[in-house]
């Protein structure tokens, strides 16, 4: 919610109220609880393509699209000799990070999003893209009780 300077002065709006309203725009209310964002900790096992940096880039972009998030940038690094990839997709709503161990068919991902983005929609994208035999997901609601 945006307020002009004249509204703040004319309508007696406090600048702290304006900041509180702006912060609330990104907070999530679910099941009667208000929190900053949903943080998914994802383990992908028995997976393929974890050494292919272009495939990982495409997969992260597909996750962002599926979640309804806004991509700002992606930075990936390919390690040698095992071929693992670490990197992050920076989002307007937060981030997606990946660390892969292709020699073990394993990747650890964090998907953290606030606002209207739906991070859970990234999970089936990851499972399909990496042909994962197993995907484990833990969900944490970050910043509970900060605004409400």
From TrEMBL:
UniProt superkingdom: Bacteria
Site (Cleavage (non-hydrolytic)): 93-94
UniProt GO BP: spermidine biosynthetic process
Similarity remark: Belongs to the prokaryotic AdoMetDC family. Type 1 subfamily.
MF GO annotations: adenosylmethionine decarboxylase activity
Organism, scientific name: Minwuia thermotolerans
The organism's taxonomic lineage, starting at the top: Bacteria, Pseudomonadati, Pseudomonadota, Alphaproteobacteria, Minwuiales
Catalysed conversion reaction: S-adenosyl-L-methionine + H(+) = S-adenosyl 3-(methylsulfanyl)propylamine + CO2
Signal peptide start-end: none
Recorded name of the encoding gene: speD
PTM description: Is synthesized initially as an inactive proenzyme. Formation of the active enzyme involves a self-maturation process in which the active site pyruvoyl group is generated from an internal serine residue via an autocatalytic post-translational modification. Two non-identical subunits are generated from the proenzyme in this reaction, and the pyruvate is formed at the N-terminus of the alpha chain, which is derived from the carboxyl end of the proenzyme.
Protein's recorded name: S-adenosylmethionine decarboxylase proenzyme
In-chain residues carrying the UniProt-annotated modification Pyruvic acid (Ser): 94
Cofactor dependency: pyruvate
Quaternary structure annotation from Swiss-Prot or TrEMBL: Heterotetramer of two alpha and two beta chains arranged as a dimer of alpha/beta heterodimers.
């Amino acid at each position: 919610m945006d307020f002009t300077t004249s509204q703040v002065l004319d309508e007696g709006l406090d600048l702290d109220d304006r900041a509180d309203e702006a912060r609330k725009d990104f907070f999530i209310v679910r099941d009667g609880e208000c929190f900053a964002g949903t943080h998914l900790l994802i383990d992908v096992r028995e997976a393929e393509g974890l050494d292919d940096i272009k495939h990982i880039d495409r997969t992260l972009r597909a996750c962002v699209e599926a979640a309804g998030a806004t991509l700002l940038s992606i930075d990936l690094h390919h390690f040698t000799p095992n071929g693992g990839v670490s990197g992050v997709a920076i989002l307007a709503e937060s981030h997606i990070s990946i660390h892969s161990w292709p020699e073990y068919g394993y990747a650890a991902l964090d998907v953290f999003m606030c606002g209207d983005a739906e991070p859970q929609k990234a999970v089936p994208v990851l499972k399909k893209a990496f042909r994962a035999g197993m995907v484990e997901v833990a969900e944490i609601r970050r910043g509970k009780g900060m605004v409400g």
